[in-house]
Design goal:
Blueprint lengths: L1 E6 L2 E4 L4 E9 L6 E7 L5 E7 L6 E3 L7 E6 L4 E6 L8 E8 L13 E2 L3 E6 L1
Parallel strand pairs: 2-11
Antiparallel strand pairs: 1-3, 3-8, 4-5, 4-9, 5-6, 7-8, 9-10, 9-11
Length: 124
């Protein structure tokens, strides 16, 4: 089993930036495709971005393409999400998750392990 702890969330004004981190422990981090998801109050959990374990294949939701960048450091067992040009609609709890699939996927059910989430609030 692999476990995750997210950090880096907070309150930011619209147009600002944040960097989320996800620290992994347990089974080999590099064996997994990693993803970020988010869930706003009263809404379903939505896909944000994903990255293969080789780091050469990434996939983004249309709503964040060009503003967010996903990256990972397998030597540190860490996943990151750099968020720029933040909008109020980006407000949500952000979760990192691991999938055994080799290619990045937006399918929530493909991810077996989840972190506890970190809150991101963007004020207008």
């Amino acid at each position: 089993q692999v476990r995750f702890v997210e950090s880096g969330g907070g309150l930011v004004q619209a147009g600002g930036s944040l960097r989320l981190s996800c620290a992994a422990s347990g089974r080999s981090f590099r064996a997994y495709t990693m993803g970020w998801f988010r869930q706003a109050p009263g809404k379903e959990r939505d896909f944000v971005a994903a990255i293969s374990w080789t780091r050469d294949n990434t996939y983004y939701a249309d709503s964040v393409e060009g503003r967010f960048t996903i990256s990972r450091d397998n030597t540190k067992s860490a996943l990151y999400l750099h968020m720029n040009s933040l909008k109020p609609e980006d407000t949500a709890v952000y979760y990192c998750a691991a999938s055994p699939q080799t290619r990045p996927t937006s399918t929530t059910g493909a991810y077996d392990y989840w972190g506890q989430g970190t809150q991101v609030t963007v004020s207008s």
